[in-house]
Amino acid sequence: MKIRSSRLALSTAALAVTALTLSACGSGRTDSDSTADGESAGESIIVGTTDSLTTLDPAGSYDNGSFHVQTQVFSFLMSFEPGGATLAPDAAESCDFTSDTVYTCTLKDGLTFANGNALTAESVKFSFDRQLAIADPNGPSSLLANLDSVAAPDEKTVEFTLTSPNDQTFAQVLASPVGPIVDEATFPADALLDDDAIVEAEATSGPYLIKSFAKNSLVEFTPNADYTGVQGDVMNDGVTLKYYTDSNNLKLDIESGAIDIATRSLTATDIESLESTDGVNVVSGPGGEIRYVVFNFDTMPGETPEQKLAVRKAFAFSIDREDLSEQVYKGTYTPLYSYVPEGLPGAATPFEELYGTAPDADAATAVLAEAGVATPVELNLQYNPDHYGPSSDQEYNAIKRQLEETGLFTVNLQSTEWVTYAEERTADAYPAYQLGWFPDFSDADNYLTPFFDKDNFLGNHFEDEEISEMLDSERTDGDVDSRLETIEDIQQILAESHLSTVPLLQGSQVAVARDGVSGVEDTLNASFQFRYSVLSKG
Questions:
Q1: DSSP-assigned letter for residue 336
Q2: Of the candidates 293, 232, 260, which has an alpha carbon nearest to the alpha carbon of residue 505?
Q3: Per-residue pLDDT tens digits for 457-468
Q4: What is the DSSP string of 379-405?
Q5: Per 3-state DSSP, what percentage of the chain is helix, strand, and coil (rounded to 5)?
Q6: How far does CA 92 lie from the centroid of its chain?
Q7: Tens of pLDDT along 183-199?
Q8: Which residues of the chain have pLDDT under 70?
Q9: Could you give phi then psi for residue 335, rounded to 5 degrees?
Q10: Could you give the CA distance from residue 120 to residue 125 in angstroms, rounded to a whole number?
Q11: Which of 6, 292, 316, 525 is the most exposed, having the fewest neighbouring CB atoms within 10 Å of its CB?
């Protein structure tokens, strides 16, 4: 991780190392509540983003924009230490396996939500039971595939009984988007709670409280004096999060000093320009973000499963990732030839071996002809213009051009704003569509299980018993070499026989900060959680 003075480079080495170690309504809080001693921890900070919020409710969102806010206001049993990706207790005093299939956490004393309600083991049980009961198609409940049941034998003890033993990832799952602890006296057990109701009820317990809230416009955060978790002391007097619909305005405001930090997302051209702008620093962190295309197995072109697979293979043969990397993103994203990004243990490159590094129209033609698919194939391809950065328009117009240059595809390209997009993609509205991914934790499994296990969050009707069994095997395999071999095999089989998604690009985290702002390099770490608590100004 570094302050950049030249072209962005992926910090894959850092990623590999860390992976191995594992509208508005007021809240009623006052600024005097912001620290334990009633004094300011430091100046307040303004953060700008184009990354919109789906919902504050942890059961209803599984996207970076929502988790960005949830990270600040909810506590977790386990979380990551600031500045890295080392797991440590947050609301818990300790967590460990007490048998092969039981993971037990003991809570700290005296925990409360901001509204004064006690945060107990029953709150934790309620939070995880609720995720499974709601199982929202846009939520993170798929991360709990190995969870059988949760028990709260006393006020401080939580017992997670797992379906399979020796789960190598469960501790990290507790620190992921499925892990926020919610107030059982406020949240319904089987339905999502409205954002304004969450704010009004002060039903959070993280390092910050929400002082005022105007969804996807402006959110004010004030430090929570009662927070005692892993994020430690808050280094500022509060944070204002300002949302932008246009990245050009985000760039102008960071240049002028109207905001202190700009994060997710500026165009590659803007980043290149800002590197030579006085008064600002472009900061990059470990890579881990990926971009990919999802195919809906029910609605995509093709009359039979064999024809549908042929269409997906022809798509893979026709993509020029290097062109997307250089022409659209100026090297700030690099070609991705697998489901697991380069730099993580277990990453392989099956797409490079099977489909090549340059478009191959002859191979695409042959695979379609063998399956009896008439050409050109009419493909409805959907993308989102506001959630995955302002260059998505260029990216997907380039993909359309690449596909149509083969003569094998006619692409109907359409875009939808994120709030609608998030709902429609899980309602079979899109035969093929754009998604991106920031990992919940830096382990290869987090690029596999959420996408390819049964009941996966994509909702694209892909399910394969062999793949699910292999995923269960790698998650519970304590032998590192054996586990990594299984992970590599999964990638190969997926690329050769299924292609429910086609990976395109891999990128790193980037933020732009004004001179005098500190801590950005610490929050852009391999935990992939943008934390306000480490930021300071002055």
A1: -
A2: 293
A3: 898 999 999 999
A4: EEEEE-SSSS-TTHHHHHHHHHHHHHH
A5: 30, 25, 45
A6: 23
A7: 999 999 999 999 999 99
A8: 1-42
A9: -60, 140
A10: 9
A11: 6
The 3-state DSSP class for residue 148 equals: strand
Q: 465-475 and 480-497 are packed helices; what angle lies between their axes, rounded to 10 degrees? A: 160
Map residue 310 onto helix, strand or coil.
Answer: helix
Encoded tokens for 77 = 């049993």
Residue whose pair of structure tokens reads 């086609």 in the numeric block: 502
pLDDT in tens, 470-483: 999 999 998 999 99
* Token output for 537: 């100004």
Q: Is the peptide bond before 265 cis (omega within 30 degrees of 0)?
A: yes
CB atoms within 10 A of CB 313: 23
Angstrom distances, CA of residue 382 to CA of 54, 146, 210: 19, 32, 34
Cβ-contact 520, 259 below 8 angstroms: no
CB atoms within 10 A of CB 73: 25
Q: For residue 143, with 0-12 CB atoms within 10 Å meaning exposed, 13-18 middle and 19 or more buried, which class applies? A: buried
If you count them, how many residues does the chain have?
A: 538
SS3 at position 136: coil
Domain ranges in the chain?
Answer: 287-508
Paired with 208 in beta bridges are 223
Q: What is the distance between the alpha carbons of residues 422 and 408, in angstroms, rounded to a whole number?
A: 29
The pLDDT score that the predictor gives to residue 313 is 98
Going by C-alpha positions, the residue among 206, 215, 211, 238 that lies closest to residue 52 is: 215
Residue type, 453: D
Sign for the CA dihedral angle at 350, 353, 359, 364 comes to negative
Closest CA to 471 of 176, 164, 171: 164
| Cα 429 to chain centroid, rounded | 22
Per the CB < 8 A criterion, the answer to whether 292 and 436 are in contact is yes
> What pLDDT shows up at residue 41?
53
Strand partners, 26: 212
Local structure of residue 108 (DSSP, 8 states)? P
CA distance 466 to 432: 24
Of 163, 245, 180, 250, nearest to 475 by C-alpha is: 163
Whether residue 207 contacts residue 229, with contact meaning beta carbons closer than 8 Å, is answered with yes
Listed in order, strand segments (DSSP E) in 128-207 are 147-154, 157-162
| CB count in 10 Å sphere of residue 151 | 13
DSSP-derived letter for residue 141 is: G
Instruction: Return the CATH number of the domain spanning residue range 287-508.
Output: 3.10.105.10
- Residue 42: exposure state from Cβ atoms within 10 A (0-12, 13-18, ≥19): middle
Rg, Å, the chain Cα set: 23
Place of tokens 């991914």: 437
Alpha-carbon distance 219 to 491, whole Å? Answer: 40
Cis upstream peptide for 341 (omega within 30°): no
**Residue 413: in which H helix or E strand, if any?**
strand 409-415
